[in-house]
Amino acid sequence: MKNKIEVPKIHLDLLNDEPVNAFESREEIQDRLIENITIENNEAQKISLDRVIVRNATIKESALEQIECSDVIFERCDFSNVNFSGSYFQRTEFRNCKLIGTDFADSRIQNTRFLDCLGDYTNFRFSKFKQVSFEDCSLISSDYYAAAFQKLYLNRCNIDQANLAQVKLNGIDLSDCQFDSLTVNIEDLYGCKIAAHQAAAFMGLLGLVID
């Protein structure tokens, strides 16, 4: 995969590991290692994470809207059903994270990688992607309605039943992905790359019947 995704810029020798029990609105967290925590029923807005590693964290029944992440690594975290809507991610990596039903709607996501993540039913509606890669992820029934893709890379991902309606797919390569069906608009498929064996999934959009 050829891309120019920038990696998080974190100086490991500068990190401190002060414990975190909950996040507070408008809190600014810098140069921190946060690990082995469980947070429940946490509602906060406009948290800022800068040069932070979050490892082995579980967040339950929480809304952390409009979070801003720059140079952040999330590793082996469970953010299932967490509300991150309206957030900003720059030079961020999600490594082996559980993101089932996580809400990233209306977010800006740049220079970000999702690696070995379980992201079924994830909501990315109206989000803007620029220099973003999903690698070896399960994204079954994920929702990208009216999202904007600019240099988005999908490698060895399962995107079966994903909603790509109102998404311009010109320049997007789906040939390495696994899917039986997708929700797409026929006019948005121009310039999308697929493998020969995937063509049958789009025949119905053309009104064709395969015998």
What features would you highlight for this structure?
two-stranded parallel ribbon, elongated, Pectate Lyase C-like, 211 residues, 1 helix, 7-stranded parallel beta sheet, mainly beta
Fold and architecture overview:
With 211 residues, the chain is an all-beta fold. It has one domain (12-206): E3 ubiquitin-protein ligase SopA (Pectate Lyase C-like), CATH 2.160.20. 2% of the residues lie in helices and 34% in strands. The protein has one helix and nine strands, in the order βββββββββα. A seven-stranded parallel sheet has the order 1-3-5-6-7-8-9, with no helix packed on it. It is elongated and about 55 Å long. It starts with 27 loop residues before the first strand and ends in an 8-residue tail after the last helix. 36% of the residues are buried. The mean pLDDT is 93.
CATH architectural grouping: 3 Solenoid
The CATH homologous superfamily is called E3 ubiquitin-protein ligase SopA
Strand order of the largest sheet: 1-3-5-6-7-8-9
Secondary structure tally: strands: 9
Query: What is the CA–CA distance across the termini?
Result: 36 Å
| SS summary, helix count | 1
Provide the helix percentage. under 10%
Low-confidence stretches: none
Q: Percent of residues in beta strands?
A: 25-35%
Overall geometry comes to: elongated
CATH class (first level) name: Mainly Beta
Total count of domains: 1
Rg, nearest Å: 18 Å
Mean pLDDT: 93
The major beta sheet can be summarized as: 7 strands, parallel
Query: Which class of secondary structure composition applies to the elements?
Result: mainly beta
The H-and-E topology, N to C, reads as EEEEEEEEEH
Q: CATH topology, anyone?
A: Pectate Lyase C-like
